[in-house]
Amino acid sequence: MAQTEISPRTNIREIVAELSIAEEVLTEFGLHCAGCGVNKYETIEQGAKAHGLRVEPILAALTQARLSGRVPTIMNEDKTPVRRAPGEFARRARFKYVVPIMSGKGGVGKSLTTALIAVGLRRAGKKVGILDADITGPSIPRLFGLTTPLGLEPDPSTPPGQQPKPLMVPAMSRSAIEIVSSNLLTDKEDTAMIWRGPILSGVIRQFYEQALWSDLDYLLIDLPPGTSDAPLTVLQSLAVDGIVLVTMPQRLATMIVRKAANLVHQLGKPIVGVVENMSYFVAPDTGKRYDVFGPSYADEVATLAGAPMLARLPIDPNLVALADNGRVEEIDDPVVDVLAEKLQAAMAQRPAKPAETISLI
User: pTM for the whole thing?
Assistant: First the structure.
């Protein structure tokens, strides 16, 4: 059988399936996506670009590994991500779309929904970042298996002769999703952030403006529950393009989500979609569907929000197990593609705007 050509257009999953050592080579470059749900769609060139790497050294290393059966020595400069091209550091990152994920109600799965949307967008070839604005109850790092504290780098746009400010370097997930979270400010994920409202609001602004984000197609913001300081900071002070509301079938949860929808409308912000989480459960042995939390009221929420239903997510033990173990990117379920496709369609109907350039406070 003919060998798979090693070229920029080679699919990552295909080369790993044929050449077992390819996964080790890709891991050396920081391309930890050989086992995740993204590489099913991604070429070596696309993976390199997402991780800020040059593709030529990766192709050379794979070719050498095929010939020798060993992982060659990789130069440090070839596996160090370049977040922006030289000469572009005089500005901050540009975001095409800023999309908060909101509920008003705790425990409905906003963080998991945010993660699934991010994975779906990456599978669609988009550059994605997640700002975890749930400062006191952050879940995003756990979902993606991230534990190393955020690094700091001096502001590269500092004029000569001035003391540069330290800026946070977003963590990079296995599939190149950039993440900033309060749980990555410390090496102990169970450290409590005992901060009052004004401080929380300031931290969210810092996460947005004082991090070295790359240029992103989508910056997703995982909002905490409620309609107080943190959500108001995001909705009132950031350039929000559209909000996704997360609800669940329980009538009490629906009532509280409607409060969040009313808040968004009062602030004049657009709701671009509704996601119903924990919508139903399908028994694996019988295939029978159960409405565990009662009948759905998602259509009622969508009508109030004036937005389409993006998806109804089932209770899926396999999905929960992957999420709990920090392997959310390994979820290879059509639902993540549906979420991404419908969100992209909803955003495409929004009035066009120039990509926002953010700057320091």
Answer: 0.84
